[in-house]
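Board notes (copied after class):
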Amino acid sequence: MTTAVPPAVLFVADHRAGSVHVLTVPDGERIGRLTGRHLSEHAGFLALPGGRVACVDDRRGELLVLDPHGERLVESAVPVAVPAEHLAGDPAGRRLAVTTGLGANGTPWSDLVTVVDRATGEVARVRTRTGEPGVTVLGGGDPLVVLRHREPGALAAHSFADLLAAPPGCPVAEPHHRLPLPDDGHGDAQDPEAGRVFAATGEGVHRARREGDTLVAEAVLPWGSSGRGWYLRLDPRRRALWSTLRGGPGDPLRWPEWTNEAWCHDLGTGRTVRTELGPGLVFRLALARHHTAFTRIHPDGDELILLDAAHTARRVPLPAMAGAPRRGGTPWEGVQRRAVAASPGSDWVAVTRGGHGEVHLVDAATGREASRLHLGTPLDHGGHAVLRAPGDGGEGDPVGR
C-alpha cells in the first residue's frame, strides 16, 4: 500500500488586509486561513524543513511557524521585535534571527535584533546598530549571526550562543568580528554547503567564508553591467546565485525606462550569465524546478518571464491591474504590484494580481495559465507568496524571501 504524496501548497499573505491564505496547488482547495495577521512583507517567508514556513506578524510582534500539514496551521508563535526587516535561519532551520528596520517610518529608528532557538523555545533580544540590517545565520558548532549594515557598510559576526544568552533588558551586543563593505549594501544570501555569505552592493557581490568564529573576505563578483542588483538569492537545487540588475535613470518617476537583466552565477563553475528582461519594474524572482520566474510591470503591458536552463526566455502576458504604476508616478507609493512564487520541486508558478484578489497559476513547462485562484481579499500592493512542494529542498535557501 502506497502513501499518497501531499500536494504542493501555496501561502499567500494579504499583508494590508491582515490575512494569510493557504491553498493546494493546482486545484486551489483552501486548507487554511489566518485573519488578523499582518505579515512583514519585507522580511517575507522563510522555508523550513518539513514543508513549513516562518514569517513575522508585524502588528502583533510574533514570529510564526506555519505547518500546512499539521493539526494546527500555526505550529508556534514567539514574540519578536518589530518592524521586521529581515528574517533568516541556520541551515538546519532551528536557530532563527529577525532584524528590525524602517516600518512605516521615514528613517531607521530601531536597533533591536531577536534570536530564537526553535528546539528549546529560548528567545533573546539585543541592541546592535540602528539601520536596515540584512541577516544570515551561518551553521557550524556555534552558528554565527552575520548582520549586513549600511552607512557605514560592514558584515558583523555575532555568536548565536552569546546573543541567546544575553540578559533581559535588550543589552547592546558588540560583534566579535567585522568586515568592511560599501555603504550601499542591499541583498543577502548564504551557501550552506560552503559556509559562505554574500552581500549585494553597487560594486558587485561581496563574498566571505567562515573560518572558525571569523569571516574571511574573498574576491568580489562583478555585475558586469551598468546596472546593479538589489536582490540576491540562492538556488539550492542548482547551487547558483540569482539577482536582477536594474539600470537606467535614477529618477523613480522615469521607472518605465529602467533596464533589467537576470544575473546568474554558478557557484560550481564560476560562470556568470546575464539575460535581458526588458524595461520597467522587475524585482524579486522565484525558482521553479527547471525555470526561474520574474514578473515585469510596464505601462505597455505586464508579463511573466520564465528562463529555462539555457537562459532562454518565455514571455507570458498578464492581465492589467487597476491601479498599476503609471508614467509620471513612482512604482512604489499607492500603486498595485505583483508577487511571484515557485518551488524548486515543482513546475507551478504563482503570480498575484494586486488589487484584484487573484493569483495566476502558470505551468512553467508550457507557459500556460492552468487556473486563476480567487482569494476573497484584495491583495493590495500585491501581497506576498511562497510555494512549497513535498521534499522540494526549499529550506536549502535559509534566508527569508
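Comment from the instructor: The chain has one helix and 33 strands. The mean pLDDT is 96.
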